[in-house]
Design a protein that fits this description.
- The complex is a heterotrimer of chains A (about 270), B (about 350) and C (about 270).
- Helices cover about 75% and strands about 0% of the residues of chain A.
- Chain A has twelve helices and no strands.
- In chain A, helix 3 runs parallel beside helix 7 and helix 9 runs antiparallel to helix 12.
- The two termini of chain A are about 40 Å apart.
- Chain B folds into two domains: about 170 residues, 3-Layer(aba) Sandwich (D-Maltodextrin-Binding Protein, domain 2), CATH 3.40.190; about 140 residues, D-Maltodextrin-Binding Protein, domain 2 (3-Layer(aba) Sandwich).
- Helix content of chain B is about 45%, strand content about 15%.
- Chain B has 14 helices and twelve strands.
- The longest helix of chain B has 24 residues.
- With about 270 residues, chain C is mostly helical.
- Chain C has a domain of about 130 residues.
- Chain C is built from eleven helices and no strands.
- Classes of the chains: A mainly alpha (about 270), B alpha/beta (about 350), C mainly alpha (about 270).
- Chains in contact: A-B, A-C, B-C.
- The interface between A and C is large, with 87 and 81 residues.
Chain lengths: ~270, ~350, ~270
């Protein structure tokens, strides 16, 4: 029995359970509720432009914040001694293992009008903030949930940089800043790209965070799709069209990100 | 040795998987019915009693609003034997042939249902439904934060309460308030009127805190929000947790609803479902549910007994006085093109 | 750049760790609150833990989540292992496109996979007469778990020295025997990792379960979500505390095992170097 034929059952599996579902989505997207082929679902897409824009914008903001906050952590972590690194790593991974819904729910207690943040602010005499049910709350929720997914890939790339590279650069007279700019930063880019993909895609399509922290006031693509399948505006054909357009835009985005990443030369000893 | 252990584990898991997979999808081992109801709408002990008396297990699930129930049923694949939607949704389901007719021979307790709640517009020949609970929509507000009397729906659009206002998270209830406030019929098919209501709702978004259904309990009780519309009897529950809350049926009038038990197409155990419907219509069971949720039962015997136990204020809330009743409207099923319009506007409003 | 981070770096890290753990700490603290308020402390009680265990909806959902996670992880690991080996032995002409298809559930947004699977199950279900339920839930979890298993095993396969397999065959093994005695032990870390990842993803999944479980079965995340749409009870806080402690204990155990294995590796190396 040749080993390469091991994969055949799985190929059949994929045909049924990975490819076929997508075909179904495509078929539904081009159908009317009565079952006739149509382009009306895509024609309706224009109504949702603001939701598309909002989703991509908020996901972009959340991703950017994750990079700004997470990159330094990854870098600092890689500088620590081995034991401390292990400990810190565990501390960063631990929240990821906690249930995603619970972590988001925790922020409700903090951000509500009668929540802990506002109680603290009134206590010290500062004006209260209305963060809950706004896009800010949603972005906070996204950053909180996805930050470890940005830190880890960057860290795992930086930490593999060979010591000799540093020594060589320093021998050539580079100071710390230059070493970072010319050695660390370029090498870390694939990690950053990895992190971007792991943050941006879930951020664009979330509906749990928007429902818990957005109070129904911040509608994103996930909510929109859910509304048309299991929510208050039943229309799975339209929902499939929206999902299809979303998948398409995300694929294009990821392709562009990959191309940009590929352009950089990765330096390894 | 290791290989044997591995193969044994493999075998066990595959068997487990097959067993688990078969155990559910095809059918429950014992007699079971699947019931879908609104949240906080039943005393759970009632289910226990039913299971003991009839030996039929109840798998009880709650839905958020009529539209979500409709979506879940239509998307397919969900088993439900008894569901308890509202009047207009039942009308729509009958129109779209989504229900089974009831065999009233199995539901003798139907005689106890108040004649006022039989043969209503949504089920004129009384073939599909048995009324369960009735009530009205009203406005609930926190008197500690809003120290004067509220009498009109205008309060929900009042700039002074910006950021403290809650609104219904379902299209019909939300539009009904806007339409009533503008003086229109809540079942209007006049597209101009619907658009004007829509514009009012869009304006309201700027001062709204959130769109809610059952989340409103926590929000009003804790003072997180100050004012919101909801179903009258729920006010009594909230009032029990926060005595500062007040209730009013606005002068413009409000919606009177009837929630009824029906059997959807695809139900697998119709006889058991009918037994359940009959059971829920029993006076003692209706009393248990009323005491728990405050919603007036359609069973007139139970309603009379319960009314006698309430204080005048509570009776006002649970049972509508004649004056207010005259100003209420019941939801009717709307024609498909209006429903489409509602869908479109609702998504646009929320987006 | 051998310098360890200074006070600035360390303070920043501490700040971020505070950010990560403050919400969890708040959840835990208020699980002991004597009223149902999530923001005003009124006194200590264990009542919420008691009512948590008495809450049959939550306990049923927990049970469902655990069973689904366990079974789907094991089945996905088995299928994924054979798939990975199969792919590894293919020519890249076939391997590359098949790997791309394999990666689709991983790359796709949760909700896209969820929606596509629900359409598949519903359409097939209306033809083959089955409904959404435990079976489709389990199937969906297996489907999205397999790619991660394959991803976890493939690097180990690449590291596998083909000479070892050839050597075993030269010594007279059939391919099957070589598989069990040589390949599996070498890729075992990848298999174990895949199993753990699959289990974790399955337990934590919400969106895909929401669309494929049908209206009558609840996993733990689904139950939590439905609770947040009603009155929020501190039972959720109690649940969070217990989950957090379990995960903490689990991670500590894994780390201790990892440290012990490293010790073993070091000793082995030292012995070999002598």
């Amino acid at each position: 029995m040749k080993p390469k034929y091991f994969a055949i059952p799985y190929v059949v599996w994929m045909a049924i359970f990975v490819v076929a579902p997508i075909i179904f989505v495509i078929v539904f997207a081009f159908t009317t509720p009565d079952g006739y082929p149509t382009l009306q679902n895509f024609a309706a897409m224009g109504r949702f432009t603001n939701i598309f824009i909002r989703s991509f914008w908020l996901a972009f903001v959340a991703t950017a914040i994750c990079i700004l906050i997470g990159y330094p952590i990854a870098y600092i972590l890689s500088r620590e001694g081995p034991r401390l690194q292990k400990l810190m790593l565990m501390l960063i991974i631990l929240p990821m293992w906690m249930n995603f819904l619970l972590r988001t729910y925790a922020w409700m207690s903090i951000l509500e009008n009668t929540g802990l943040l506002n109680r603290f602010l009134s206590f010290v005499g500062l004006p209260t903030l209305n963060i809950i049910n706004t896009p800010t709350a949603v972005v906070i929720g996204m950053v909180y949930n996805f930050l470890p997914f940005m830190i880890l890939p960057i860290y795992s790339v930086i930490v593999k940089i060979d010591q000799s590279l540093y020594e060589a650069a320093q021998d050539l007279g580079a100071n710390n800043v230059t070493v970072f700019r010319k050695v660390v930063f370029p090498v870390s880019l694939p990690g950053v790209l990895s992190g971007v993909m792991m943050v941006f895609v879930p951020a664009v399509s979330t509906f749990v965070i928007t429902q818990l922290l957005g109070g129904g006031m911040v509608m994103m693509l996930g909510d929109l799709i859910e509304m048309h399948f299991l929510g208050t505006a039943y229309n799975p054909q339209l929902g499939s069209a929206i999902a299809l357009v979303m998948m398409f835009v995300v694929i294009i985005f990821m392709y562009l990100v990959n191309r940009f990443g590929g352009e950089e030369k990765v330096v390894t000893a | 040795m290791k290989k044997k252990i591995l193969s044994a584990v493999l075998l066990c898991t595959i068997l487990l998987a097959l067993l688990a997979g078969c155990a559910d999808s095809s059918g429950e081992p014992e007699d079971t019915i699947f019931v879908h109801n609104w949240g906080y709408f039943i005393d759970r002990d009632v289910l226990r009693i039913f299971e003991e008396e009839y030996g039929i297990r109840v798998n009880y699930q709650e839905f958020v609003n009529n539209e979500t129930l409709y979506s879940a049923l239509n998307l397919g694949g969900m088993r439900a034997d008894v569901i308890i939607p509202s009047d207009y949704m039942i009308a729509r389901m009958i129109d779209e042939d989504m229900l089974y007719e009831l065999n009233f021979d199995n539901i003798p307790n139907y005689a106890l249902i108040d004649p006022r709640f039989r043969g209503l517009d949504f089920d004129p020949d009384n073939r599909f439904s048995v009324a369960y609970k009735v009530g009205t929509v009203g406005l609930i507000y926190n008197s500690a934060m809003i120290p004067y009397e509220i009498t009109s729906w205008s309060a929900l659009f009042d700039e002074r309460f910006a950021g403290q206002i809650l609104m219904f998270d379902n299209p019909r209830d939300a539009f009904a308030i806007a339409l009533k406030y503008l003086g229109y019929d809540i079942n209007t098919t006049n597209e101009d009127e619907i658009y004007r209501a829509f514009e009012l709702l869009v304006e309201q978004r700027g001062i709204l805190q959130a769109y809610v259904m059952d989340q409103i309990f926590d929000k009003l009780e804790s003072g997180e929000a100050w004012i919101g519309p909801y179903y009258a009897p729920d006010f009594l529950t909230m009032h029990g947790n926060n005595p500062d809350l007040r209730f009013v049926r606005p002068v413009e009038g409000t919606n009177f609803f009837v929630d009824a038990m029906v059997i959807p197409r695809g139900a697998e155990n119709r006889t058991a479902a009918e037994k359940f419907i009959n059971f829920m219509s029993r006076t003692d069971i209706a009393l248990m549910n009323m005491s728990w949720s405050y919603y007036a039962s359609a069973n007139y015997e139970a309603a009379a007994i319960f009314a006698a136990e309430l204080s005048p204020m509570e009776r006002e809330v649970v049972f509508v006085g004649d004056e207010d009743y005259a100003k209420t409207e019941v939801f009717l099923h709307l024609p498909p093109h209006i429903l489409e319009l509602y869908d479109r506007l609702w998504v646009q409003l929320r987006g | 750049m051998n310098k360890k981070p200074g006070i600035l770096g360390r303070s920043y890290t501490a700040l971020i760790l505070l950010f990560l753990y403050a919400p969890i700490a708040i959840l835990i603290i208020f699980s002991f609150n004597s009223t149902r308020s999530r923001t005003v402390w009124t006194g200590f009680t264990l009542d919420w833990y008691r009512s948590l265990f008495a809450n049959s909806s939550i306990m049923d959902a927990l049970y469902t989540s655990l069973i689904v996670a366990l079974i789907s992880a094991v089945v996905a690991t088995i299928i994924g292992t054979f798939a990975a080996i199969g792919f590894h032995n293919m020519r890249s002409k076939w391997r590359t496109p098949l790997t791309h298809i394999n990666n689709i559930p991983m790359m796709n947004a949760d909700i896209a996979t969820a929606v596509s699977l629900s359409l598949l199950f519903i359409t097939l279900g209306s033809v083959l007469r089955f409904r959404l339920g435990f079976g489709t839930l389990l199937l969906a979890h297996i489907i999205f778990n397999i790619p991660y298993v394959v991803l976890s095993i493939t690097p180990k396969l690449r590291q596998l020295d083909n000479n070892l397999v050839d050597a075993a065959c030269d010594l007279g093994c059939t391919w099957m025997k070589a598989f069990w005695k040589v390949i599996v032990p070498e890729i075992r870390p990848g298999i174990v990792n895949g199993l753990i990842i699959a289990f974790t993803l399955s337990i934590d999944d919400f969106v895909i379960s929401y669309f494929t479980a049908g209206g009558n079965i609840m996993t733990l995340p689904m139950q939590i979500f439905s609770m947040t749409r009603r009155r929020v009870s501190p039972e959720i806080n109690a649940l969070s505390t217990i989950l957090f402690l379990s995960v903490l204990v689990l991670l500590i155990i894994i780390n201790i095992r990892g440290a012990r294995q490293e010790e073993k590796q070091k000793k082995r190396q030292a012995a070999l170097n002598k």
